[in-house]
Amino acid sequence: MKKILFLAAAAVMGISVNAQEFRFGPKVGFAMSTLKIDEKQDDLGKRNMDPKYTFYVGGMAEYKINDNFGFQAEVLYSPLGAKEKIDGVDAGVIYVGEQTKVTLGTLLVPLSAKYFITEGFSVAAGANFGIILTAKQKTVIGSDFISVDVEDENGSGEIDIKKDIKKLNIAPFVGVEYMLENGLFFDARYSLGVSNLSNDGSGGKVTNSFAQIGVGFKFGGN
To answer: How far apart are CA 29 and CA 114, in angstroms?
Structure first.
């Protein structure tokens, strides 16, 4: 009986210790997203669109194997994409230009391995698996006097380009994180887009890279 009680107590203590290594919580932040385009036509077809400044929101879960190593998984939503301004031409008495904004509503699932330099400071490396839920493009042609939205067949100012965009965006990333004793943490990371998102059949390539700076709170732990 004493042995059974001892084993039961040891098991409970083991569970308790393991539970202290698990943390979870919400996180939100700011993102800067860009699109790199290679239309496979000429040098003019290769370009980086201007950054789109946006947000992300979601949650995370972290498990520490020991004092130095751990794993983290997250589920985030972010309307990524980019924007572009094309200088126009002097059409007689007016100067006509074009502005385009692409928005990719993306569900992000980042998975990473973490190394804890100190208890509160860590570095991470992993991959973002992005599922593109929506893809919209808004184009405005304008001059000094008037601007006109390019509309689709339904008269909408935003054109649905989801059929031209692949659903999966894989982006390896590196990042850093600093956590206070109360569980509040701050992190930053950069994700490099490697997946070709172009699905229009032209043979071109479109990749989405983005940087993130955020804040969150971890429950659990010691």
So the answer is: 20
